[in-house]
């Protein structure tokens, strides 16, 4: 929307942030995790530096607790040393190699015997829902039209652009950005020959209640000797996120883009967690969720069939094909550099469509719903004075008030899940069993924008 352009977003679900963007670790990486010289590293370093500004403009809570990458043996030590070197060469700020003793002193809950550690002061964390919903509201406020429940089923090249057909309507566009996540390869092939396909692998996560959130202070990235690692993140809401596993998905799971969890995966996660953080209270588990990694591979066509080549694609690739811009296989750290990548692809799509005039009315800021739980008692009293609905707590686990739920519905939340994502109601220990009915009644009675 920074350009004078008519932008329509076609989304098959009823809300934003239903794909991979809803199910990830929420880490804002500093750039040491990517190979030196890669596009990923360049974008990540740039994005990390710009993240405070982005979150201030969009009023998205963002913390920089810093991260500790830890290892317990020679294989991990060499990986950590390589990441340090890649980070330094790539201009990543705030990196420091630590001895095992130094790392153990910084994080006393970790199992003893750490052989090396890499500290990164600039690593941070956001709630991916907060970020996506804020970006959506900002784009909408600046004039983008969001069409929900519209699955793209056909793309045809026409003179001067494309006809894009969904299961409900037909649209004409001068240029098209294909950001369909796990289906981006299929969407591209609606009009192009197969070149790249996604072969997803699954991930499992466990979330612990806020009581266990402070078990570790920094983001912990454990590099396992056998290739299996563990990540621990205290979320912006104070819960502890544990994960992800990495397991091959069945063809059925992957083709349905099904983000189910797996019992063995969750058990192995708990075992690894108990090994790395021995005193962790896993009884504080409140939920688990699954995700899918969109691993991109080149394919060649043999006897009319697309066959996977050995080469996977490690770096970012924007496939540019006469006005069609496909973002295929955007893996970690795609959340970190989403704004940078969006900017690059928007420049290309606007240029192709001949809409290079900047939108003088563009407003980069978005107002968030004020969260009662973030306020001091005095601030809370002042807010209640102006809006008495802030005085009624609906979700006592997460301290969410009637006013916040009403505002979420006004902004477009249409069911319990979408209210939950916008306010946090239902994310606590009881998982919504106490507030669900009341929230459903409000959804029925409030008007939407
Ligand atoms: C396990 C895991 C952990 C990760 N952790 C991190 C992290 O800590 N930090 C980080 O920076 N990055 C992380 N990432 C990467 C990041 O989450 C992704 O790069 C990013 O979310 C990808 O966003 P996307 O828009 O490409 O895809 P998505 O978020 O999946 O969006 C695609 C959208 O397209 C819609 N769609 C699909 N097909 C159609 C169709 N035919 N018509 C209309 N709409 C359609 C979908 O419904 C969906 O809403 C992680 C990824 C994974 C898998």
Report the total helices.
Answer: 12
What general outline do the C-alpha atoms trace?
A: globular
List how many beta strands DSSP finds.
25
Hetero groups: flavin-adenine dinucleotide
Strand content: 25-35%
Tell me the number of structural domains.
3
| Architecture (CATH level 2) name of the largest domain | 3-Layer(bba) Sandwich
Work out the helicity level.
25-40%
Report the uncertain regions.
none
Give the rounded overall mean pLDDT. Answer: 94
Molecular structure report:
The protein is an alpha+beta fold and 449 residues long. 30% of the residues lie in helices and 25% in strands. It contains 12 helices and 25 strands. The strands form 7 sheets. Strands 4, 5, 6, 14, 15, 16, 17, 18 and 19 form a 9-stranded mixed sheet that branches. Strands 2-7-3 form a 3-stranded antiparallel sheet. The longest helix has 20 residues, at 39-58. The chain binds flavin-adenine dinucleotide. Residues 10-13, 18-21, 24-27, 29, 151-152, 179-183, 187, 203, 244, 291, 293, 327, 330-336 line the site of flavin-adenine dinucleotide (FAD). The site of flavin-adenine dinucleotide (FAD) has 33 residues, from β1 and β19.
């Amino acid at each position: 929307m920074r350009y004078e352009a008519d932008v329509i977003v076609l989304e098959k679900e009823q809300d934003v942030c239903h794909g991979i963007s809803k199910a990830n670790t929420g880490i804002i990486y500093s750039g040491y995790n990517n190979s030196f010289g890669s596009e990923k590293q360049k974008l990540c370093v740039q994005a990390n530096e710009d993240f405070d500004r982005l979150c201030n403009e969009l009023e998205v809570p963002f913390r920089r607790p810093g991260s500790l990458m830890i290892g317990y043996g020679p294989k991990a030590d060499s990986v950590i040393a390589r990441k340090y070197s890649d980070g330094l060469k790539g201009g990543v700020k705030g990196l420091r190699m630590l001895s095992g003793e130094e790392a153990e002193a910084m994080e006393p809950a970790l199992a003893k015997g750490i052989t090396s550690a890499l500290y990164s002061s600039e690593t941070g964390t956001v709630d991916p829902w907060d970020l996506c919903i804020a970006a959506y509201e900002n784009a909408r406020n600046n004039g983008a039209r969001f069409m929900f429940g519209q699955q793209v089923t056909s793309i045809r090249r026409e003179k001067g652009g494309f006809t894009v057909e969904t299961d409900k309507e037909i649209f004409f566009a001068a240029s098209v950005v294909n950001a369909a996540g796990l289906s981006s390869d299929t969407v591209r092939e609606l009009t192009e020959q197969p070149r790249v396909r996604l072969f997803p692998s699954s991930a499992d996560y466990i979330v612990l209640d806020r009581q266990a959130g402070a078990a570790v202070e920094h983001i912990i990235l454990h590099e396992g000797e056998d290739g299996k690692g563990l990540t621990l993140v205290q979320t912006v809401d104070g819960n502890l996120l544990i994960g992800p596993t990495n397991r091959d998905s069945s063809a059925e799971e992957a083709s349905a883009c099904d983000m189910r969890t797996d019992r063995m995966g969750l058990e192995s996660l708990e075992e690894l967690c108990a090994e790395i953080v021995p005193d962790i209270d896993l009884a504080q588990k409140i939920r688990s969720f699954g995700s899918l990694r969109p691993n991109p591979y080149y394919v060649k066509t043999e006897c009319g069939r697309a066959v996977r080549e050995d080469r996977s694609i490690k770096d970012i690739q924007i496939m540019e094909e006469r006005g069609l811009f496909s973002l295929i296989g955007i893996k970690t750290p795609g959340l970190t550099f989403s704004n940078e990548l969006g900017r690059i692809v928007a420049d290309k799509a606007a240029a192709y469509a001949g809409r290079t005039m900047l939108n003088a009315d563009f407003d980069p800021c978005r107002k968030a719903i004020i969260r009662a739980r973030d306020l001091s008692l005095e601030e809370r009293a002042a807010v209640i004075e102006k809006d008495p609905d802030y005085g009624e707590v609906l979700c006592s686990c997460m301290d969410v008030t009637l006013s916040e739920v009403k505002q979420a519905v006004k902004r477009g939340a249409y069911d319990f899940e979408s209210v939950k994502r916008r306010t946090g109601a239902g994310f606590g220990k009881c998982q919504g069993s106490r507030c669900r009915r009341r929230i459903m009644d409000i959804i029925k009675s409030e008007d939407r924008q």
